[in-house]
Amino acid sequence: MKWLRWQSTPQARRAAGPARPGRRRADAVGQAPGAGAGTILVVVLSGLLVWLVAALAVTFRRTPPPMHFVVGEVADSNVYSEVPFRYADTLQTERLRNRASREVPPVYRLSLPAVEASLQSLTGLGDILRQRTLAPGARGGEAGPLPDLAAAPAPDLLEGLDGLALDALRQLAADPARLRILRDLARDVLNTGILEERDITGLREPDSPVLQVTFLNDQAGAARTSMIRVDELRDPKKAAAAAAAEFVARFPDTSDVLRTALEQLLSRILRPTMVFSADATEKARRQAVAGVETVMRFVGANEVLVLRGEAVTQDMIDRMEKHQQELHLRQTSQTGAAGYLQGPIVCAVLVLCAGYFLSVLQPGLLTDRRIVVMVALVTALQIALNRTVAAVHFLNSGSSFYLFALLPLAFAAMLLAPLAGMRPALVSGLLAAAVAAWQIRSPEAFHLCLTGTASCLVGGSLLRRARRRAHLISTGAAVFGTVLLLELLFSIRGNLPAGALGRALPPLAYYAFGNAFGVTALVFILLPLLEYSFGVASDLTLVELSDLNHPLMKRLQLEAPGTYHHSLTVATLAEQAAEAIGANPLMARVCAYFHDIGKLDRPEYFVENATHGINPHDELQPRMSSLVILNHVRQGMELARRYKLKRPLREVIAQHHGTSLVYYFYRKARDQKEPDQTVGESEFRYPGPKPRRKEVVLVSLADSCEAACRSLDRPTPAKIAAMVDSLFGDRIRDHELDDAELTFRELARVRDMMVRTLTTMMHARVPYPKESGREGDTVQAGPATATAGPPSAAPDSA
Hints:
Strand order of the largest sheet: 5-4-3-6
Largest sheet: 4 strands, mixed
Number of strands: 10
Shape: elongated
Radius of gyration: 48 Å
CATH class of the largest domain: Mainly Alpha
Helix content: 55-70%
CATH architecture of the largest domain: Orthogonal Bundle
Number of helices: 30
Low-confidence stretches: 1-28, 132-154, 773-798
CATH topology of the largest domain: Hypothetical protein af1432
Number of domains: 3
Structural class: mainly alpha
Distance between the termini: 28 Å
């Protein structure tokens, strides 16, 4: 570790000399050493975009202060109307509609089967009475006995009638004309409607609002309809009396005995013919309710909406929501020059502060044009989304207790965290929350800022390292719980009555749930779109690329097995080093898998793929050998474009050698040069650029350390540590780490981790003694125990 402490001193920097003017051009996927004019222009335009969207959001269509009241809450202050408005009195309207529904007359239908059954009973009784008016063998005029009534359709119809009544009925049955008229009168009474006595009693109760009923006189219920007053409804007894009276009016010579007998007989024959129709009644009630117009109330400006100390009712909440909605419609913009300037100036300050925080928290971010544009677009989209959701909410229902639970404040953080990192995601989310809070301009602004901060932290931190699609669901559930918990905490106030919060909890949970999982669904849709548009890769994509069955990895296995094994070892080193310094281990591992795919062009020219001790460079000039080695970076970039690899993978292919020197062939060229020839370093250096991203730097260091330590004869921990120290020192002295996003403290941790990992990988094997009876054979294996016999097979050597 002495070399690390010495390298950070001014003496070391002076000894290293000025920066080497090597080939430092930036590749298409490389990072520029500094912020050029183009990068500055992109940063300025991105900031202007965010500022413009924020200024429009706070200047035009301002959001009135939210209204946080629930039914039953005791108001702690007076609430006055600022503008005149009209609102629908829902309570009075509902009261009138209920009354109209209750006053709808019940609908009855005519039962034709009941009519026919009554008429058949009357016809059958007449036939029985006409069978024998005199008994067999009776003498003139003497009445014979009644026929057998057991065969009658209703033998109990004549029970209780005395002899005179029976004689009068026999005489009536003997006259077909009069009997036919009686039947017609009975049919008319039946068609007019007969109702059960108990039903009539129910309709005539004092508290019943029904004064009449609707009677559908035909079976279809559409041709003939009549209204019958309740006091005019007739039960079977009244209907029989009416029919008998009509018969007497037709035939004045009818005796009182026959009239009484007819009333008794018809009261037993006539059946109720009015059947209650529930469907028709409900249809009539719906029509009556639809006919009641909504009661509108007018409220002028400066009128009291809620008095302090008064219990809030649903009608008051309706008035306040309509008032907020009217405010939103009327306040299309600020008023006066001060109003127009105030919002844009505040937004400009917020955007400048956000840019400054990003430059301090993540200095290299503002030099990456794609990330800057992506962060600006997502931030502008977040501000516009907040404005749109609030506007739609106000236009439909006005302000309410549930407004903050509905705002998608975690959207930008959840979308940017897996693509740009937690710091840009948090700054973007906080900027959007601050803009939304400025639109409110009330004590509730702190409430909104805290809710936005908490949801951004939870959503961004959980989704930052999401490696499965299921993590999106768990993140949505966590955001839902966070928003709901904060809304409940802010809702717990001393003036809330018992049960008021419980009634507000279900809709509050409903809005928070829709917010959280609506944002999750939107992130799920936009995440791959942003990855494709800006060439970035989230951990979800890196997990897919980590599959060793990728076509390029399969080619490495078959065409360059030595490079394939080397890439796996480098991946292990880079992943553990990334874990040690808090970088992205998954990105480091995937970048290591693909960093040497350019060697697929001519794998036999690289030592790890050499077979049978044949070195093809023996037949080449040093410059030609150097071109072959340097060319694997260019070939790797072509393969990356052909297979559409993500931007981080193209960066590691282009940068993992930086602008380092192919020293072996450079030294060989110098040794073989003629006296009049010159050998320049630029011909033997990689084109660069130098590695910048942490994960790319780790792959670069792991690549050189693994290759160098493989060349050690009988590697020991001391030799490995000395080799790693030498390589790290050379990188620093050669200015290869000038652009790296690593501190010396992180570099020291990386050195320790790589030494430990390489020592474990390259441990020496203990040779076994010769097996009894097999001279000349030696087996490589681990140490045997005292009780175990010699191994039966040799394990794989490291």
